[in-house]
Amino acid sequence: xxxxxxxxxxxxxxxxxxxxxxxxxxxxxxxxxxxxxxxxxxxxxxxxxxxxxxxxxxxxxxxxxxxxxxxxxxxxxxxxxxxxxxxxxxxxxxxxxxxxxxxxxxxxxxxxxxxxxxxxxxxxxxxxxxxxxxxxxxxxxxxxxxxxxxxxxxxxxxx
Length: 159
Fold this sequence. Notes:
Elements: H1 3-65, H2 79-103, H3 107-129, H4 131-134, H5 139-147
């Protein structure tokens, strides 16, 4: 066996080993990338959910600090409190609209935050029902709220 035969055989062996490593690497990537994407999506979802929780907690802290914000009826409120309530109700409905927007892609949000939507709609539904406030939101969202029965039915004396 000459040097040329030895180098040719060694070259073929190296190529065979390299092909084995390439095949193993491809297999690891084929399995690992989808798993990593799924894990990243789960992490992103958890982070987003924590952000929603924190935002809603901050909203609730405002109610603790300013109890009049949980009372939509303007009777016995100062003009400043009426302005504060209007801004607060707008923030609440923007929060609900954000959940609506994101729940189109993440169905679990509609289920998880549905009780918050029902509660806030019951408390702040009159504010939302005013025509000047409805136009602050996308038509699809307004239709969803109306069609979904999220707004409470009020008698004339509640207006």
